[in-house]
Specification:
59% of the residues lie in helices and 2% in strands. It is an all-alpha fold and 367 residues long. Strands 2-3 form a two-stranded antiparallel ribbon.
């Protein structure tokens, strides 16, 4: 069962928490709102649906801004309505460009395929992103790290070394671990989740997942102590520091337990994954899918035909859509199956985050 059916303030909601501002108070209306002549009924319906979705999205953004500015109470899961409204904007825009390809515009700063996003409304997602930053701020007692990115790489590489991997795979594990951190939280420590009361912290884990990761860490810890006593000394300090606090709000323990919960079990397959997928971003996507649809991905990895492995479960397809994969427009949402290669290609919303992770990894490696 997916652990991300509501959460993509984890993964993709945060990936898009940097994306829209409707120019009603920032300039003229989007070109897509201009009333064209000589449209077919289907084209006009698509245009009207997009304009309605855009208006509704802006209204919800304005409402949240007013509530926050005036210190009004926010509803439970205050990001959910915002997220769904943003999904609707992108979905109706994709339906519009399918019906009227001339509406496909210029590239946008977020790297989203232009058929899915009108660059003229770039300014609204920046406001959307600022709202999520406020709504998902870490709690006051969260324990941050001065070296959050290096912590992720250090833990990922130590776990991979304890798993007996070679030098190339150990490096890949560190790089991929950093990619997961960016995919889950946009590289932010100890955050909450405006769309879920369950998933929290630097790796957006549930309490049960955190407990599972802690148990697995205790089992692997002696192996790591044998070759990296300094890392274990750091771990001792963080355990003493966290005390009775939720381990998900100490950056070190959240990352450690998140990696051990699911990703560490797949690290031994890194040589095969890297051989099959030479692109580091594709490798990161595999591990992000382990966060979203763990069982099907493990089956795909065991199949011996990774790229051709096809998922046809409607429940799994729904889990993918809940994470902004095949989520936009009627054509994508009507899909009942997808090959592993098609799924990776549809994860374009994660590309910008993984590019940032790669750049940060090279910075850590060279530094």
């Amino acid at each position: 069962m997916s652990r991300r059916s509501l959460t993509v303030a984890t993964g993709a909601a945060l990936a898009l928490a940097i994306l829209f501002v409707l120019p009603s108070r920032h300039g003229s209306l989007s070109a897509a709102t201009a009333q064209p002549s000589a449209l077919t009924k289907a084209q006009l319906d698509a245009l009207n649906a997009y304009n309605d979705a855009l208006s509704q999205f802006k209204s919800i953004v304005d409402e949240r801004q007013r509530q926050i500015t005036s210190h009004q109470p926010l509803p439970n899961l205050p990001g959910q309505e915002l997220y769904l409204a943003r999904i609707k904007v992108m979905s109706t825009y994709k339906d519009l460009t399918d019906a009227l390809p001339s509406r496909i515009g210029k590239p946008n700063k977020f790297g989203i395929p232009p058929a899915y996003f009108d660059a003229d409304i770039e300014p609204l997602i920046e406001e959307y992103g600022k709202l999520f930053d406020i709504m998902e701020a870490p709690p006051a007692n969260a324990q941050s790290s001065a070296t959050p990115f290096k912590d992720v790489v250090d833990l990922g590489t130590a776990i991979a070394r304890a798993k007996g991997l070679n030098a190339a795979s150990i490096e890949a594990a560190g790089r991929i671990s950093l990619g997961i951190f960016f995919a889950e939280t946009n590289g932010k420590q100890n955050i909450g989740n405006a769309r879920s009361n369950t998933y929290k912290g630097s790796f957006q884990t549930a309490p049960s997942e955190d407990r599972s990761g802690r148990r697995k860490w205790r089992a692997i810890r002696p192996s790591i102590a044998a070759f990296d006593p300094r890392l274990i000394a750091r771990d001792d300090r963080e355990e003493a520091r966290v005390g009775d606090l939720d381990h998900r709000f100490n950056h070190w323990t959240a990352v450690r337990d998140g990696l051990m919960n699911a990703d560490a079990d797949v690290f031994p397959q890194l040589p095969m994954i890297v051989k099959t997928l030479s692109n580091p971003i594709d490798q990161m996507k595999v591990f992000e899918l382990i966060q979203i649809i763990p069982s099907p991905i493990r089956s795909a990895l065991k199949s011996g035909r990774l790229m051709d492995y096809t998922i046809s479960s409607l429940a799994i397809m729904k889990d993918l859509r809940n994470n902004s994969i095949f989520a936009f427009g009627k054509a994508d949402r009507a899909r009942t199956s997808a090959s592993f290669r098609e799924i990776l290609d549809a994860m374009w919303l994660f590309n910008r985050k993984f590019e940032r992770a790669l750049a940060k990894f090279e910075e850590i490696k060279s530094g």
